[in-house]
Amino acid sequence: MDDFSAQPGALNSFRLVGGDANAVEPLQRALSSMSPTFVLNAGEPVNSVGAAGGPKIITQVVMAIVHRIDGKRTLVDALQHPQLHHQWLPNKLVLEKSFDPGIRKELSGFGHEIVEIERAAVVQAIERTTEGDLIGVADPRVPGKAIGL
How far apart, in Å, are the Cα atoms of 80 and each of 54, 114, 131, 139, 141? Predict the structure, then answer.
C-alpha cells in the first residue's frame, strides 16, 4: 500500500511525494516506478530491460540502456557498471560504494551532497544478437541467473 499516498504531499517510505491522484481510495493510481522497457532498432526489438528498487528503478533502466548503447559496453558490462541515482527529495546524489573515487570527488566539487549505498537497484536484461540469439543477463549485485526456454 505504500505505493499509494496515505496523505497527499507527505513522504512515503521511499521518500517519494504522492498527491491526490495517488490517494488510498477506489479508481486512484499507485505511485509506481515500474518501467519495463523495450529498445527497438528499425522497429525491431533488440533489448529489454527491467529493474527492482523502488524509486531507483527508472534511473537504473535508463543507465543500463545508456551504458549499453551510448557507452558501447557489452550487456554484462552495462549491468555491472556502478549505479547512481538522484531524485527530487531528498536533494542528494546516491552512489554505490563501488563508484570511481575520482568521479565521486568531481561530483562533490560540483556541490552534490553524496550518499553511499551498497546497491541502488537490481537490473535484468535480455538482448537479441545480430544472429537472432537471445542473451539474458542477471544483475551481478544479487544471487540469480538468466535462463531461457
Answer: 19, 21, 24, 7, 8
